[in-house]
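STRUCTURE REQUEST FORM
Protein name: START domain-containing protein
Source organism: Erythranthe guttata
Requested output: structure tokens
Priority: standard
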Amino acid sequence: MSNSKVVYEGWMVRYGRRKIGRSFIHMRYFVLESRLLAYYKKKPQDNVVPTKTLLIDGNCRVEDRGLKTHNGHMVYVLSIYNKRENYHRITMAAFNIQEALIWKEKIESVIDQHQESQASNGNKYQSFEYKSGMDNGRTASSSDHESQFSAAEDEDDSHPNLLRRTTIGKGPPESVFDWTKELDSELANNNADNQAFSRKYWRLLQCQNGLRIFEELLEVDFLPKSCSRAMKAVGVVEATCEEIFELVMSMDATRCEWDCSFQYGSLVEEVDGHTAILYHRLQLDWFPTVVWPRDLCYVRYWRRNDDGSYVVLFQSREHDNCGPQPGFVRAHIESGGFNISPMKPRNGKPRTQVQHLMQIDLKGWGVGYISSFQQHCLLQMLNSVAGLREYFSQTDERAAAPRIPVMVNMTSVATSSKRSKKLQSSSVHQRSSSLDQIHASNKNAILMDEESDEDEDLQCTDQEALTSAIGIEDKKTAYEEESKDPIDLSIFSGNLRRDTRDKGRDCWTLSDGNNFRVRSKRFCYDKSKVPAGKHLMDLVAVDWFKDTKRMDHVVRRSGCAAQVAADKGLFSIVFNLQVPGSTHYSMVFYFVTKELVPGSLLQWFVDGDDEFRNSRLKLIPSVPKGSWIVRQSVGSTPCLLGKAVDCNYIRGPTYLEVDVDIGSSTVANGVLGLVVGVITSLVVDMAFLVQANATDELPERLIGAVRVSHIELSSAIVPVLESDSSDTLKT
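Status: completed
Returned output:
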């Protein structure tokens, strides 16, 4: 790396298309300096040469390419280039819009500094004009801009027969009514002769689920019964605009958690970064045994305004690859979408106003003329704003990347079927099975090429490359496990006995790593988790102590498993779970390994500072046997111990002891009181691991896992602890 000051750095995605037309993504480490943007295959050390660089000066521009889809995953794409050398560019992407916006802001600030510096020297850069195509008094947003130089180079020029090509530069597609503009009175005055932007007038119809429901006031006296009035729901959600936008754009199973009218959704065609054509099945509960289900095919356009708000617009559209589906009535969206606007925070929490508008004709013979059917279904769809509000108020899982499962067109199905015939013995495949096969392969297919950045020269498909990469990783893991000589466990002992029988009492045994799900190698892409598998360390003994005071630094006890391991040249990690009360209890787990792999996540944890350890030490609990209320209270959600309770780390030459003070948390103490009261009737599983946050740290591996069964309080002993040894490091 150069000596220039680093402005911003982190893992991002290299995104592009090969000559054969398929998109690719690679995880790369990007570094932005005061005059240079570069990326590396791995986090750079001193004097490492970057894979590619781009000199940053006042002629550089950041081009917003919007959302692109790669194997069902949405990425937000930015392209950075020099307008004098347009062929020299770096295209980067993020899995969430927040990270992309941070990079966009940082890069633009560096460009601005160069422009100001050059201007102060009396030498201004050439002016740069956008071809926004919005000259009717409208204020173009930053995400609507696209440079005139790059417009001709857009990588999706293969759809000349569609409605129009350049959405980013010209705003919404033709005939898509931007109802969010109706709030701008100046716009209505300036465009009085433009019927598409005539002002709507609304009246409050009702309040429902904390939402205000408005109905359009019509300027005409007569309207066909089958054509519903426009209605909109307005509510406040305690989340950022970006978090809400990502949920609104998703069409996978997570949508079912907040949109009760959603049954299934898929991508028909990606027109460009801001426009897509989608297929959507509605889940309506109005006499489902009599009324046929409804589906939709519509164009969706989105943009981000300069004030931080997001606009998502819907309009029904016919498409060759999305004809009528058997058993469904094709409804028609006259106008619809979301307007997501930031509000002032309250009590430190972000607040966002969400408007959801829908004007829809549900079609169908006879039923369309029953007004109660139209209104009931419309209210059910608009109620999704309340679903969004409750979703964010009831969950902390906000980091999931949105995904759109790909709906394959007829040509793709035919190609896939030919390929399937070569791979399988059967020669005939029905179209439905081909679709299922493609859906399954696309769900988690991510290409991570660490060998070459010559993207255009890669001729294998993404799925083949992924399979190959996973195979190499599996072989590597298998080799590591086979080459690991077993540790003689007979030399270790603890006062809590080991018993492998299913019905053993007052004992411990190893818990299978596959009982716990941890972050997979692809977690950064799809948030997927996999069974943990083999442990990194061996659990050799468990001690069960009691005393009138809290027992810290239990490794001091003469003859304990950690001291025995040290005598044999082994390294130990000791977890001391401290249970407070009138009598203090400690359950101590001794995990042993021959050596720590240098540069591994486990070695970083052992030798890191307390702040790093607290941010990474994770416990996954489970109660396979016990009362319902205890199982619900303990749950099975992973917990960062250092964030939940106080942890004291004691680093010795051959060990790391972690004293976990469960009594330091009111919540944990309350649950603990419940557990201790019925501990003899419980079987508890616990897995300890170091949380992996970066791609090169994945997949996660367990330090170890244990099952304790039907523990008796009376079996605990009072330990004899020696004074601290002088060679112990307390960190």
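Reviewer notes: The mean pLDDT is 75. Residues 507-709 form one domain.
Form closed.
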